[in-house]
Here is the input.
Amino acid sequence: MLKHPKRLAGMAGLAASLLLSAACGAGAGAPADIDLGSGPAKSGTIKKDALSGLNMTFVSYGGAYQEGQQKAAVDPFAQESGAKILQDGPTDYAKIKAQVDSSNVTWDVIDSDSIWAEAQCGKLLQPLDYSIIDKSKVPEGLATQCSVPAMQYGMVLVYNKNKFGANPPTGWKDFFDTAKFPGKRGISGNPGDSAPGPFEGALIADGVAPDKLYPLDVDRATKKLQSIRPNLVFWKTGAESQQLLESGEVDMAMMWSGRAYAAVKNGAPYEVTFDQWMPIMDSLAVPKNAKNPKASMALINYYLGAQQQAKLTELTSYSPINTDAKPNLDAKAQSFLTTRPDAAQKALKIDSKWWAEHQTEMIEKWSAWLGG
Here is the structure.
């Protein structure tokens, strides 16, 4: 699997926008009626040449992740369907809003943060057509009215096995126990990226039961975080978190599973524990008033196929969200997949609906604590 620059959970106005003048023609030449064939939808399939003559635009976060999406699903879909698909990015929420507000939507399928997608259902995003999209192989509860998962990863606890190998930390309580587990801890210092992670970890460490996390008690969480602040080393990008491991600057870290794998693959002497890890997803969605909604649904349906998902995992460090996907990975890479049954059963249950309702407020509070 490739190392890749993990995008930060985007907020309106935070992502830099690439202007793609060619996208202005998206939708030109669209057939009057699209025939996707008869019978129930089956993920990973598209009727041959069903979209011949149609222009579409797929939007994601760039880097090796979007390259993987293109190779695993978007280009093969174009070849099968006959559509011409332009690539744009990075995903920019302000730009999506401007397109929808002006009724000039030039993006057809977008990859976004799942919490933002939850919050924008029926506002900037339209409901998905599940007569075209087959979600039967998507784990229960991950497909929503307006979005499906694009992939999965997680916020995990990693530790230096040379230092703690004989007595390793097993959860967030240990991450906050600097007496039993002395040393520096890496943690996100990005003011626009608070969910999920530090607040949940701090509350679990302070004794809150996993099923009583929400609504998050921010005052209690920040007090717990403050108790270990002298031991914290803040990272702002995935690349920085990975470098903290490769340089040995921290003894533990709360970080993205893909970046942890990349560091270990490069020789960093760290192990990951999946106890109490926090699932995170990107989502695929269709902007409200998109010019080619039926074709957009067909692209999402194709993307969800087992073969496409397996290939995406092989090209990136993200876990597949089709339960039939069987990526060809070595043992170490397999051990970092969050969708393994033995890892999935240890995950904290993240309330994405609560986060969607409170995301802006929580980012403000997280930023305030970081600045304090």
Observations:
- The first helix runs from residue 63 to 81.
- The chain has 14 helices and eight strands.
- The first strand starts at residue 55 and ends at 59.
